[in-house]
Amino acid sequence: MMAKIIGGYFTSHVPGIGGAIMRGDQETPYWKPFFAGFPPIREWLAEARPDVAVVFSNDHGLNFFLDKMPTFAVGAAPSYDNADEGWGLPVYKSFEGHPALSWHLIDSLVRDEFDITTCQKMLVDHAVSIPFELAYPGVESWPLKLIPLAINTVQYPLPSPKRCLALGRAVHRALQSWGGDERILICGTGGLSHQLDGPRAGFMNPDYDMFCLDNLAANPDALTGHTAEQVAELAGTQGVEILNWIAARGAMGDVPLAEVSRNYHIPISNTAAASLLLEPA
């Protein structure tokens, strides 16, 4: 008996998406090109029926702030609540955790020489809630359990793309050694290119986004040729959220992957937005 990684779901998570859902703007000309990427993802999820989602995202201040910012944090809570972040969004549904699998991941990562922060209490913000509102619209409760991993994409110094890919691969090894029979969905959220502040506010880089989308499945090591600082230059200071995607890709393992669905639209809420679904080939 062994847990099975059934696929990888990647999406942007900007709070404006939550506002569009709240207002019912999915079919408006501004938002429709982004939301058009999700019907095939929802259909795939309905058929694949994952039990657990291992989600790589970045915290925006709900758990960690600039005075205390772990490079890598792993949730080990029995449940994960959302809370008001000040965006005017509804407070989203809570997730059930999977503490046994979380602790297995944590133990394996530490043995693999990753110095992580363990969170037995943890809130999840829009970086987790919005991707699942997109994937499972209108459900009364989430149909899968959550294991959240938070990566610092906010406070200098940031982990490198190379280190994030290594983290993901270590998570993959941990999942491969787990004795359960769960069907596991790997998720990476954030991005793509955007910068929300400073002289380059509004900056986006479709060329770099396409480089990432074109290489993520087949050649993720190609994304590790830049430092985190170079990624901030290429993708914008918030575009470094691509680190979450890189880590999630590592967690899928070094196996051939098929691209089930891809959507890219620019801009929504000053962000180059994308969704991507990968499965083992």
How would you explain this protein's 3D organization?
It is an enzyme of class 1 (oxidoreductase). This protein is of the alpha/beta class and 281 residues long. The protein has one domain (4-280): LigB-like (Protocatechuate 4,5-dioxygenase, Chain B, 3-Layer(aba) Sandwich). It is built from 9 helices and 10 strands. The chain has an 8-stranded mixed beta sheet, with helices on both faces. A two-stranded antiparallel sheet has the order 4-5. Helix 6 (161-176) packs parallel to helix 9 (242-251).
- The DSSP helix count reads 9
Mean of residue pLDDT? 96
What is the N-to-C order of secondary-structure elements (H for helix, E for strand)?
EHHHEEEEHEHEHEHHHEE
Helix content: 25-40%
Question: Could you list the spans in which at least 5 consecutive residues all have pLDDT below 50?
Answer: none
> In the CATH classification, which architecture applies?
3-Layer(aba) Sandwich
Shape assignment: globular
Count of β-strands: 10
Number of domains: 1
Write the CATH homologous superfamily: LigB-like
